[in-house]
Amino acid sequence: MNAPFDAIKFESMKFGIGQPVPRREDPTLLRGQGRYTDDLSLPDQAYAVMVRSQVAHGVIKAIDTAQAKAMPGVLGVWTGAELNAAGYGPLKTLIPVPNRDGTPMKTPTRYSLATDKVRFVGDPVAVVVAETVAQAKDAAEAVMLEIEALPAVTDARAGAEAGAPLVFDDVPGNICLDFHYGDSAKVAEAFAAAAHVTRLRLISNRIVVCAMEPRAAIGHYDPATDRYTLHAGNQGAFGLKHQMAALLGIKPAQMRILTGNVGGSFGMKGSPYPEYAGLFHASKLLGRPVKWTDERSGSFLSDQHGRDHDFDAELALDKDGNFLAVRLNGFANVGAYLANVGPLMGSMGVTRNLAAIYRTPLIEVSSRIVFTNTSPVGAYRGAGRPEANYFMERLIDTAAREMGIDHIALRRRNHIRPEEMPYKTASGTTYDSGEFTALLDKALQLADVDGFAARKAESARRGKLRGLGVGDYLEVTAPPQKEMGGLRFEPNGDVSIITGTLDYGQGHWSAFAQVLHEKLGIPFERIRLIQGDSDLLIAGGGTGGSKSIMASGAAIVEASDKVIDKGRQIAGVALEAAAADIEFKAGRFTIVGTDRGIGIMDLAEKLRGGMKLPEGVPGTLDVSHVHEAAPSAFPNGAHVAEVEVDPDTGTVAVVKYTMVSDFGTVINPLLVEGQSHGGVVQGIAQALFERTVYSEDGQFLTGSFTDYALPRASDVPFFQMAYHAVPARTNVLGAKGCGEAGCAGSLPSVMNALVDALGGRHIDMPATPERVWEALRG
Asked: GO MF terms on file (predicted)?
């Protein structure tokens, strides 16, 4: 029976776009009923353990597997030579970037298991498979490695110096990519004419991703169908399917990816890893599924790390404080091998985001992407965007201090104005919308900046130093990609959204259901989300780059339009009217000018009941649709942080935090707040806590939670959050993405606040108590 219009209206108010609807996934996850990869066990599965190098750099002289193979329960031990002989391909980077002279960057071949040299501690050299995990671990410890150790290098700047140990013999100077963007002559001219130049060396420290769920996978080859199935946490089943097919040397149709719940990724699980080929090789030979679950110690060593940039940054200003040019010259550590997006973060990622919200006529970025004997560096929440905003905001605060200009006034003076939209930046992007000064003013008011002096005085009475910092940011979301928006009306009366994006903590189900509910009036509780099965997908850009709602949201809207077109034809038959006389509104098809109609769910029920239709009328409301492109959007905001410093211990506490964001149309503010909180905490963690340390010979000294600090709930304050929404003009929903913005605003705001507390003394991240204590004492 159709719901009356008032009921549908009330439902839309409760579950439509803009409402704070709780995540549909939460009841299952909070009851401990989620299904992560390690929760899955297949019949007759065996267990794999990886043998990893304990040497950072060395020549493999011998791998003795005889003792391991003879141990109880061991089903096999395989090395790189055996995998290579079986024809498995190398792992590939997805984003090649040309050198400054137009030549290709260096892309050394990386096979799944090292055969000639090991290049970082954790480099996998063999896979052991046994009946139980314990048996596989015992056997892995019995594999004898003879490795001739070589000198190692772990720092990008040092790795590019003459005489540094070569990670690859055929990569001179360890330079993977010599990147350049900008007009050097014009930039040099601007700097020469500048009334003031601010210079800083700025380091974005290396991060261990520390996802809640360590990497795990099950590889299963079925000889009856000649198909390969991989169960693994990832960021997009469709893309991983094609990458895995290339790795295994098979056709994409032979590969299936299945993904359940994913306990975090932040970019790290976005591509194939070396362990996967070994699982399939063993499965094929043994005729059994093979399961591998990494331990936390292995994750510290072998998961892709994030960040690790070291730049000399310069900002040129005229006598009034107007920006003339910004210039970066530095190094980005790519680790021992190219990861999924390779050199993107320290090259185009930084370049595209450096201008942020400011009129900056000229930009020049020179970066050397350097191989070192460390874990590979991949995308990590923001992938170059937080770094660029951090560099720019630190330059601005420092310039304001050096020139005697208020740091807020300097920002306002250089903001791009609304009337200048669309605005083409010096990096080639074109902003479609934004009200940056109004947004900053709202953040300052909400943060009660006028009352800061009193709060600073109160901190001083307790012997604490207090500082205030602003992080004005803008980020460029991921570029256009195809995305699937399938809609399927199920036999039980549910409606399923089929998407090529993949939820690894974002809460897609609720947000996507809100879009569909608003568009078609389908009851919210009847909407399901299908993701993570590559066999059901005809396209999919995956989740990453803060683009999911722009891509999947647009796909759902377009697919809904196709449902309406089909429904008008079918409803015309049901209502005995011409399709041209049928209109759709609030979940009902009605004859124009009458009250005769039928609800979309009732129409679907009639189809399931065998409704007779004339030739040419669609027999289903189901749609399989691909959205062709979701252009980049430009989320932006202003974060205001206040910190207290204990001068006796160097301990820094973030005591007040305010953020005002322009995410365009906000589909679900509850989820957006959660994403923002998470990003801010990760930014605070990088700024104050997370410190990776390698020894001179490449040993990872901060390889566990005993040595590597993450913030706890008591280390962060409650957040004040508000919006200043200026809908995007480049996508149908007007959304701008929000998943990574928290990092982009928190890195600069926290560090600017700390520098303010220290009286203007620059300090690098992570600002650990030891470093702060030393800075206070000169």
From this structure: iron ion binding; oxidoreductase activity
pLDDT score of 479: 78
Residue 618: count of CB within 10 angstroms of its CB:
17
The token duo for 572 is: 């015309």
B/e letters for 378-389, b = 16+ CB within 10 Å, e = fewer, are bbbbbbbbbbbb
Residue 470: C-alpha distances to residues 390, 453, 753 (Å): 11, 16, 7
Report how far residue 266's alpha carbon sits from residue 324's, in angstroms, rounded to the nearest whole number: 35
**β-bridge mates for residue 133, sequence order:** none
The pLDDT assigned to 631 comes to 84
Neighbours of 582 (CB within 10 A): 23
DSSP 453: H
**Helix crossing, 385-403 with 407-414: angle to 10°?**
120
By three-state DSSP, how is residue 330 classified? strand
Q: Which domains does the chain have, with CATH numbers?
A: 5-34+479-627 (3.30.365.10), 46-153 (3.90.1170.50), 214-302 (3.30.365.10), 432-477+634-778 (3.30.365.10)
Return the sign of the alpha-carbon dihedral for residues 403, 407, 411, 412: negative
β pairing state of 46-52 and 290-293: parallel
Show the low-confidence residues of the chain (pLDDT under 70). Answer: 1-13
Contact 51, 129 (CB under 8 A): no
3-state secondary structure of 376: coil
SS3 percent helix, strand, coil of the chain, rounded to 5, is 35, 25, 45
Task: Report CA dihedral (248, 250, 256, 261) to the nearest 10 degrees.
Answer: 20
State the number of CA atoms in the 13 A half-sphere of 499 facing the CB.
28
DSSP, res 345: I
Q: What's the pLDDT score for residue 94?
A: 85
Pair 21, 15: CB distance under 8 Å = yes
Give the integer Cα–Cα distance in Å for 291 and 133.
9
Question: 60: how many CB neighbours lie within 10 A of its CB?
Answer: 21
CA–CA separation, 491 and 556 (whole Å) = 20
CA–CA dist 206, 176 (Å, integer): 18
User: What six digits make up the tokens of 775?
Assistant: 């800075």
DSSP 178-231: EEEES-HHHHHHHHHH-SEEEEEEEEE--B----SS--EEEEEEETTTTEEEEE
pLDDT at 629: 83
Q: Which residues of 163-186 are buried (b: 16+ CB within 10 A; e: fewer)?
A: ebbbbbeebebbbbbbbbbbeeee
Query: If DSSP codes are grouped into helix, strand and coil, which group holds residue 7?
Result: helix
What are the angstrom distances between the C-alpha of 533 and each of 233, 256, 690?
Answer: 12, 7, 35
Nearest to 203 by CA among 315, 330, 338: 330
Q: How far apart are CA 479 and CA 388, in angstroms?
A: 17
Q: Nearest-CA neighbor of 664 among 631, 699, 638, 635?
A: 635
HSE, side-chain direction, 13 A CA sphere, residue 372: 32
**Residue among 171, 205, 202 at smallest CA distance from 369:** 171
Give me the pLDDT at residue 366, please: 98
